[in-house]
Amino acid sequence: MGLLAASVYGNWWQRSMPPTDISSNGQLIDGLWNYTTALCIFYFILVCLGLFGFSYLYSRKRHKTPYYTYGNKKQHIIVTAIIGAAVFLTIDLNITRIASNDLLQQFWKYPDPKTEKVLRVEVMAQQWMWSFRYAGADGKFATADDVVTNNDLRVPVNTKVLFHLTSKDVIHSFWVPNVRVKVDTIPGRVTRVWWDANVPGVYDIVCAEMCGANHYRMKAQLTVYTEKDFQKWVGSSQEIANITNDPDDVNQAWGWKWEI
Amino acid sequence: MSGGFNEIHPEPTTFISKYIISFDHKVIAKQFLWMGIAFLGLGGLMAILIRWTLAYQGTPFPILGALLFPDTGGVVPPDTYAMLFTMHGTIMIFYAITPILIGAFGNFCIPLMIGARDMAFPMLNMLSFWFAFLSGAVLLTSFFLPLGAASGGWTSYPTLSTTLGSPGAGQTLWCVAIFLFGVSSTMGAVNYVTTVITLRAPGMGYFDMPLTVWGLWLTAILNAIFVPVLGAGVILLTLDRVFGTTFFLAGASATSGSGDPVLFQHVFWIFGHPEVYILILPAWGIVSDLLSFFSRKPAFGAKATALAMTSVTVLSTVVYGHHMFTTQMSPLLTQAFMTMTMTISIPSAIFFANWLGTIWKGSIRFDSPMLFSLGVVFVFGLGGLTGLHLGTVTTDLYLHDTYFVVGHFHYTMAASVLLGGFAGIYFWFPKMFGRMMNEFWGKVHFWGSMLGLNGIFFGMLMVGYGGMHRRTYNPFVYEYLQKLIPINTFITLSALFMGAFQIVFVINFLYSLIKGPKASNNPWEVGTLEWTIPSPPVHHNYDEIPIVRCGPHELGNPNLKTGRDFQYQTEELVEG
Amino acid sequence: MNRNSLQNNLAMTVILISGTMLFATLLMGYAIYRTSASVWPPMGMMKVSLGYPVISTLTIFLSSWFSHQVKAEVKLGNISSARSNLDTTIVLGVLFLAVQTLLWNQLRNTGVYVESGIFASIMYGFTWIHAAHVVLGLSSLAWLRLVMKPTTNELWQKALNVEKFWHFLGIIWFILFLTLFVL
């Protein structure tokens, strides 16, 4: 029985793990999640020991005379205060500190295209599709050689990608579970996020904000290429873009010109 | 301190004045209870439809499916699915929990527990119920509109909830219904706040009030302050939808100048976060009292619990931004909200310590109300702890809008409040209806519900961590979610299991109403004021306004010589 | 039913806090719109001329003054005098709504329609919401007028309660006047 349970639940434990982390910052989130969960399990076990233990030890049958106290004696207050302080210090302050550090040193340290190698991509979300725009050979957006893809994001491996996002209609949210972070795309506003992908492969892109009846199938695909394959793709997609783009209407597939 | 208005006024005689347009808080409480239970059933049915769709894609829903969705052969279509989860949330929060915990228990318990003959403003009380009823009626009519009811999520974010994303009158009626409900809540809040402050029996200081009353009073204060904020939000949304204003329009829909959709989120959550504490405070109060009553000893650190509940109330006002971490507020604001959210752990830990301290060295009787109260400690502990993952910005960037959030808030709102509500119903049923509910079936109901609830919501935490996002009609169009299918099916089976056990409750409740054994004045042998009078009480509750001489948890005093192990609040405290 | 003044005052305080929160939310939104716009009014619109808003403000202030007199007269037992003060209060209140209507007409005549963007949304939206509460206030004044009889229980307290709500509406209007029209 135990083995059966273990095989079912062991397998379930595996199944409920997040998809493989392919980014360099994902482990910060996974690590913090583990830390938080470990401490939560610890404190919850304490609560359960109290709950089940006291229920057992102090049932009416086993413990006929209750201990008459208001819990306001000095020792009671001290114990309660220690519990409150312990929870706050071990979990809350720690996770706040760790998260703050991670935010300031990684997630909010947006790469500067002027000083480091970063691929810039513009993202437009709409009901119910993702459009991605690359600057093309001239390195400038909103020009005739921009490469626009639908539901098809391709990036090179080990390269920071800086996204600027907006939405055409309702609020959507751009999320690659394998990369962990998500950001909302808001009509009338430009949001941004950066990440890198370190494992070549094909991954799901998900819309993570209710956006209408087809929210559930607002799927896109992330392809992480090796550097060589990425350059090949850049070449071929540029060729296509040069043919299909209308030089007099650089925003034809994009909606409107938007400034960062 | 007691104010005026405690006269004995004549009893109503006609059917209408007794049961329909009643000014008696006990009748109004029951009206809220029926309304709440009816909507609970409707919301629960919607949940089953949602879970069925998630587990059995493309399979028609048995029996009802063919009736409700004839065009698709009984299968729930995607746009109806959106409407289902929207209305499930709306109904459960505003039309089930609020009427049962705040409308029914608030109305029934507050005057009785403080020794008053009625609320301070009985006419306002009556209006509060009928506004809630009207609101419910408006909401229900929206189902019959050609484009259906609101379907943008209960959070109703623009621009999805503007005419761009939600054409049709369903969303507008939603706004109207919510506004009417807000009026009802505000009326109730005025009554509860004033009644607790001015109609406590002589001798009952604030810390002599049962913690149930504390919970309900703090809830009313939060209601009075924050419901109007939501009211303002839905008025502006309605103006956008009906009159063409642009408060929340931006992007392609803002053809005549733009507003700010994120502003709605701020307004909504300034209300929304206190709202979740509004929903849980009564349950915390009830559990704090019941744990004491059934352990036969005073509530451990009762004063500290009252103060902890008050500090959570205050803190709840400054943490709302943790619902919006992915909208890119400024770094300062984001970090401030994270830090403030963390501080709520402290008072929460304190009342957990106090709850465990209450049962520690008690002499515990495991009647149904006690089992449900212990259940609350378990589920709220688990659910509350998962809030830490969500309150931390970095982990939230992964977990936001996944089933982890759904699991978290269902553990804290659905499981805790439901179990707390059941604890209250089993406990006060004798006082309300003069009969006892069946104890055996109560225990059966408890175990079935506990197992079911944990199966559902722990499963949700698991699939959420695995990356399954919420409000998704068919998650399995994604490769990476395929492995979660068995767990998803398990959640649905747990939901069906849990739903089935509610039938036990309904049968027990209805049967006991008619044929339950008659209840004595004080079947639970506890000392709060409502148990000093008959079950059910006479119309004016107290022949003579009681004089309070001791606290609400005087149990297990070794100096008692009367053969009872408790003292009524009207008795002098027996010292050694 | 004799309620003491504490209960009445508490209840009115809670009601006014709720009302304040509603308008505070609106003002918070306004602050955000205004501070995030580079120029106000946006979209090349003109500031609304102060003529009608000033008249509205004076009208509602005058109305408040008369409502204050009502209570004083009730206390002295001069019911008929109280009644006439109350009548004046109500007439001035209706006049306030009439001036608001003129204001809205004027806006339309200058090309500012409800659908004309965020500036118009705020102008119309906020003044409509205030006007709706004025209608509520007028209803309670009308009710007070109906019960303004020597035999009514606790007439003074009732007059006080209604007066508080009426003053509240005047104060809210004044804040809207300053923030929407003057600043």
Overview of this structure, please?
The complex is a heterotrimer of chains A (260), B (576) and C (183). Chain A is of the alpha+beta class and 260 residues long. Chain A has 4 helices and 10 strands, in the order αααββββββββββα. In chain A, the strands form 2 sheets. In chain A, strands 3-2-1-5-8 form a 5-stranded mixed beta sheet. In chain A, strands 4-10-9-6-7 form a 5-stranded mixed beta sheet. In chain A, a hairpin with a 2-residue loop joins β1 and β2 (129-134). Chain A is elongated and about 90 Å long. By secondary structure, chain B is an all-alpha fold. In chain B, 62% of the residues lie in helices and 0% in strands. In chain B, α2 packs parallel to α5 (122-141), α4 (78-114) crosses α14 and α7 runs parallel beside α9. In chain B, 67% of the residues are buried. In chain C, α1 (5-36) runs parallel beside α5 and α2 runs antiparallel to α3. Chains A and B meet through α2, α3, β7 and β9 of A and α4, α8, α9, α10 and α11 of B.
> Radius of gyration of chain B, Cα only, in angstroms?
24 Å
| SSE succession of chain A | HHHEEEEEEEEEEH
The portion of residues assigned to helices of chain A is 25-40%
Figure out the total of helices of chain B.
16
Low-confidence stretches of chain A: none
Oligomer: heterotrimer
- How do the SSEs of chain B run, as a string of H and E? HHHHHHHHHHHHHHHH
Shape type of chain B: globular
The number of strands of chain A is: 10
Based on secondary structure, the structural category of chain A is: alpha+beta
| Sheet with the most strands, sense and barrel status of chain B | none
- End-to-end separation of chain B: 29 Å
Q: Sheet with the most strands of chain A?
A: 5 strands, mixed
Share of residues in strands of chain A: 15-25%
First CA to last CA of chain A: what distance? 60 Å
The radius of gyration over CA of chain A amounts to 26 Å
Which class of secondary structure composition applies to the elements of chain B? mainly alpha
How much of the residues of chain B is beta strand, in percent? under 5%
Provide a concise account of the structure shown.
Chain A has 260 residues and is α+β, with helices and mostly antiparallel strands.
